[in-house]
Amino acid sequence: MDKYLNLPLDEAAADGLTVGDFVYLTGEMYVARDAAHKRLYEMHQKGETLPVDLENATIYYMGPSPAREGRVIGSAGPTTASRMDKYAPTFLDMGVRVMVGKGRRTQEVRDAMIKNHAVYLAAIGGAGALLSKCIKKAEIVCYEDLGAEAVRKIYVEDFPAIVVGDCRGGNLYGE
């Protein structure tokens, strides 16, 4: 079933999603990969205030290529989500509602998704140039020194994805 969703997603909206749903996202998401996740996690472990608000946040696991002239961002395809699995349960406990990437997740992440009413969406791997057309605004919010792995806030319109992990333990990769 196709669903058009506005971000941020609240608990009720996440609970309404089922594995196999096609979704089109409009709103703000954070972009972060391995190095940024590590820094955010370490800040949290030290009790420091994070430079981003994770309450009901959507995190897209992606590191864009440089933007071409006239574009807000370069190619913007998903990266493998399992590289963030050691951090995901903590971030889900902090309020992350939606994760977007590609590939399987660990049982620990899937359990944290159930506990926190969160979902995991897969974006189309290999279609970064196409996905970048859905990104209307992009700005670095922290860790500029990480280059492509800096944390960005992006605004997307009708960003396509599929629900591959839902709040009830549904797992498209396992079904």
Would you mind describing this structure in some detail?
The protein is α/β, with parallel strands linked by helices and 175 residues long. Helix content is 22%, strand content 28%. The protein has 5 helices and 7 strands. It has a 5-stranded mixed barrel. The longest helix has 12 residues. The relative contact order is 0.24. The mean pLDDT is 94.
List the helices and strands and how they pair.
Blueprint (H helix, E strand, L loop, with lengths): L1 E5 L4 H5 L6 E10 L2 H12 L12 E3 L27 H6 L4 E4 L5 H10 L2 E4 L5 H5 L2 E8 L8 E15 L10
Parallel strand pairs: 1-2, 2-3, 3-4, 4-5
Antiparallel strand pairs: 2-7, 5-7, 6-7
Summarize the structure.
The chain is α/β, with parallel strands linked by helices and 175 residues long. It has helices at 11-15, 34-45, 88-93, 107-116, 128-132, and strands at residues 2-6, 22-31, 58-60, 98-101, 119-122, 135-142, 151-165.
